[in-house]
Amino acid sequence: MVTIYDVAKKANVSPMTVSRVINRSPSISEKTRLKVEAAIRELDYIPNKQARSLISKATRLVSLVIPDISNPFFTRLTRGAEDKALEAGYQLLLGNSDESADKEAQYIELLLSSGVDGVLLAPAGDGSAAALNKLTKRGVPFVFVDRIAEGAACDRVIGDNADTTGRLVRHLVSLGHRRIALVNGPSSISIARERLAAFREALQREELGFDPALVIETHFKQDNLEDIVRQLVTLAPEARPTAILAANNFIGVNTIRALRQLDLAVPEDISVACFDDPEPIPEYNPFLTVAAQPAYEMGYKGMQMLIERMERAAPDAPRTVVLASDIIVRRSTAAPPSSRL
Amino acid sequence: MVTIYDVAKKANVSPMTVSRVINRSPSISEKTRLKVEAAIRELDYIPNKQARSLISKATRLVSLVIPDISNPFFTRLTRGAEDKALEAGYQLLLGNSDESADKEAQYIELLLSSGVDGVLLAPAGDGSAAALNKLTKRGVPFVFVDRIAEGAACDRVIGDNADTTGRLVRHLVSLGHRRIALVNGPSSISIARERLAAFREALQREELGFDPALVIETHFKQDNLEDIVRQLVTLAPEARPTAILAANNFIGVNTIRALRQLDLAVPEDISVACFDDPEPIPEYNPFLTVAAQPAYEMGYKGMQMLIERMERAAPDAPRTVVLASDIIVRRSTAAPPSSRL
DNA sequence: CTGTTAGCGCTTTCAT
DNA sequence: ATGAAAGCGCTAACAG
Q1: How many angstroms separate the Cα of B322 from the Cα of each of A43, A148, B120, B274, B298?
Q2: B20 beta carbon to strand D: under 7 Å
Q3: B94 to chain A: which residues are within 8 Å by CB?
Q4: pLDDT of residue A282
């Protein structure tokens, strides 16, 4: 391995001078600098980050911890985070928590020993707070994206769940739907709580009653929704929902699969809309009506805020950035069957 | 920061003893071990990886360099790679090359100074070889996934392009197609070359002539394919293709978009099939007929081979693993218009 | 502008 | 089974 000593010897200077050249110290004569740079090139010298980090306590490593990179929403978010990280000279360590607070905690433990400079996180739930305390204790800043964990005061970039939910409900009501079901994520996750609260408010605003039987809680990654959906569609005709709002793209897609298994046509028999676009590639055969959250921007902005924290360029008080969604109306929503009689 | 010295003092032993406990050295008395472990827990001590790496020359960091995480094929591949890495105690550094050899080279430069133990790579093209030489020179092993760069003898996990192309062509021919176009990726990328060669062989096997006008080279990330597609569909009726084979999911999807813009219906007017499924989530409204490559397995197996290299548990000779695809017939392919008259 | 000294946190080596 | 000394590659702090 080539070290500064090798370079120093070749350039006939002290190791410290080499260090100064690497770090672009201004107090180096042009002549010496050129001499050292030549030696560096000749020897193909690359500074050892481990040694530097040992002194500086900074690694230029950041981590992004998300539930699952396979979900197109998080894929886009990841791409945004990576782009910003690279721009600022940080490298991105990727971790999937699979919506498990345990796996997330394990991962954070790993990060602690890797010495990451910061963590961008879509927490698996409020149970994340314990692991996050360890980060705080070690002075590793973190920022929430998409979701937050209760009990941690830190920067966050989140979607406007109230507004978005309201607009989705508005869309369905404007089509003529009066009984709308919500298939939600676990209430341990902030976005599920916010979406439920906004759902109730939206129903009230539309002067529709709230029927607890039309709200079902499942997991954001649950793929078999047949039982849940059957429960909804086998309600008495006057209680049965004519539209289903799914709290994320996974639930949306799997709701449609379940409806198909139950021989119900979307949107003829029942309408479906969801949060987050399941389509990864600009549309060619899109089906689901969705509230498309700006996932790329969430990742990008979240990383930007994290970098500001790491570089102590942010005010002490936690900041909140709220991003709006686009409602994209596609084929999965239409007027309810009754209004078409 | 808590160091082994702090732990040593608290446990009334020497730092070396603490080091032995951390590293599970067998030559430690049960009693001492317990004492040290208690001190570690009390002080919330976490070993500093930078210091360890400085001595061991290993970082337990691996990198995955792919063209674009946004492509569902690479998303799945990434998930496979991450799962295997975590299993083996490695952390994954993610890099997007955007199909640019320059960006890839820059990224590899970064990796070199980060001291990654190995790199899993879907090279942007044959131009990658130069950057890869630097890895070789520094003794950093790398493994190819999905694609290879000419001029580097290393392990690889690739798809069976010959067989897959043959089966896709077979499918189209069996529907009655006689004139099939290939919209391919750049010939600087191995999979594009292999798919073209296999395409020619398949046509020959099916006793169809090869028409160079029906092969068009574009980029795997090009999103506006209108000109290219127009060029194909405005050929004289007897020369016009009745089916288009797209060399990846992006090209497939954008071919369909372009056809739509040209007011051509798929599959009524023209059939389309492609490599790699553009669907990220188990089917709910799939349209494109595809050759689904086992992306997750590619990532997983590739990472496994890389780990074997890093840990010197592999034979010297480069290994090649070839994985087969599934042909999934969906709605975008049907009999050609002529046969339906 | 350049060099010397010391030490970051840990482990290797050699003693005991 | 345990410890003392030296040093991994680099830079902060000081000296000149």
Answers
A1: 39, 43, 16, 19, 9
A2: yes
A3: 78, 82, 92-94
A4: 73
Count chain A–chain B contacts defined by CB atoms under 8 A.
Answer: 152
Residue located via tokens 């808590």? B2
Distance CA A32, CA A21 (A): 9
Q: Provide the pLDDT confidence category of residue A221 given band limits of 50, 70 and 90.
A: very high
Residues of B within 8 A of A253 (CB-CB) are 281-282, 284
CA pair distance B297, A176, nearest whole angstrom: 46
CB contact under 8 A, A70 and B75: yes
Of the candidates B152, B99, B107, B155, the one whose C-alpha atom is nearest the C-alpha of residue B125 is: B99
Give me the pLDDT at residue B339, please: 63
pLDDT of residue A339: 62
- Tell if the CB–CB gap between A113 and B49 is shorter than 8 Å: yes
> Mind giving me the DSSP string for B165-204?
HHHHHHHHHHHT---EEEEE--TTSHHHHHHHHHHHHHHH
The answer to whether strand D lies under 7 Å from the CB of residue B34 is no
pLDDT tens digits, one per residue of B73-125: 999 999 999 999 999 999 999 999 999 999 999 999 999 999 999 999 999 99
Answer yes or no: same fold for B61-159+295-324 and B161-293+327-340: yes
pLDDT value for B224? 93
pLDDT at A286: 87
Highest mean pLDDT among A161-170, B130-139, B274-283: A161-170
Pick out residues whose CB falls under 7 Å from strand C. Answer: A 13-17, 20, 25-29, 31-33, 51, 54-55; B 1, 3-5, 15-16, 19, 22-23, 47-48, 51-52, 54-56
Residue A124 above 70 pLDDT? yes
Q: How confident is the model at residue A284 (pLDDT cuts 50, 70, 90)?
A: confident
Q: What pairs with residue A80 in β-bridges?
A: none
Level-2 CATH architecture, domain A61-159+295-324: 3-Layer(aba) Sandwich (3.40)
pLDDT mean over A260-286: 92
Interchain CB distance below 8 Å, A54 and B59:
no
pLDDT at A67: 98
**Range B158-171 burial, b when 16+ CB lie within 10 A, else e:** bbbbbebbbbbbeb
What is the predicted pLDDT for the residue at B148?
97
What positions of strand C are covered by protein, i.e. any atom < 7 Å from a CB?
A: 1-5, 7-13
Instruction: Choose among A44, A49, A70: nearest Cβ to B114.
Output: A49
Percentage of chain A modeled with pLDDT above 90:
94
Of B298, B280, B297, B310, the residue nearest B91 (C-alpha): B310
d(CA B116, CA A92): 13
| Ranges of each domain in chain B | 4-43, 61-159+295-324, 161-293+327-340
Q: Is A79's CB within 8 Å of B69's CB?
A: yes
The order of strands in the sheet holding A271-275 is A215-217, A180-184, A243-246, A271-275, A289-292, A326-328
Q: What is the average pLDDT across B39-64?
A: 96
* pLDDT above 70 for A249: yes
Q: Write phi, then psi, for A120 (nearest 5 degrees).
A: -105, 125
**What's the average model confidence in pLDDT over A56-81?**
97
CB contact under 8 A, A46 and B94: no
| pLDDT at position B338 | 73
A161-293+327-340 has which fold?
Answer: Rossmann fold (3.40.50)
